[in-house]
Every structure is written in C-alpha cells, then in structure tokens.
Amino acid sequence: MAKQIFDVQETIDEVERLLKADKALLPGLMAAIKMLIMVVKMLTNKIGLNSSNSSKPPSSDQNREKKLRTKSDKAAISG
C-alpha cells in the first residue's frame, strides 16, 4: 500500500466548505465535526513546534536532539 501525502489545511478547508453547503446536517453532528476539525488543527500546529519556536526550554523539550558527550569531549572542554 503506497503512502499518500496530502495537504491537511487544504483538506480542512474543503470539509469546512462542505459543512457550510450542507443544510440537512443535524446541528449536533455539525458541532461534533467542527470540534474534531479544531482538534486536528491544534494537533497539526503542535507538530511543527520545537524548543526554538515554543515557550518550552530546550531541557524540557522531549523532541529535541540530545547530544551524547564522551570522556574526550569533557577533557577538551575543561582544557
């Protein structure tokens, strides 16, 4: 099965357009779909965050690249 890449924002825009056009959709169902769209937007925005563009300091960022130091690295630093 081939992995398909699609534009999330473009898909969300299309779903929102279809929701506005559909007058027969139950209000509760429409509210639930809008809530799911909001969750998807929040998750896609979070994917792009890292310690350089969020309020998290690098030490608490679980997704940061961790550099492992060896003994020779410590000796070179201390001089």
Task: Explain this structure.
- The chain has a domain at 1-49.
- It is built from 3 helices and no strands.
- It is mostly helical and 79 residues long.
- The protein has helices at residues 8-21, 27-47, 71-78.
- It is 54% helix and 0% strand.
- The termini are far apart.
- α1 (8-21) runs antiparallel to α2 (27-47).
- The mean pLDDT is 78.
Overview features:
single chain, 79 residues, mainly alpha, 0% strand
Which helices and strands, and how do they pair?
Blueprint: H1 8-21, H2 27-47, H3 71-78
- How much helicity do the residues have? 40-55%
Shape assignment: elongated
Compute the number of helices: 3
Number of strands: 0
Summarize the structure.
The protein is mostly helical. It has a domain of 49 residues.
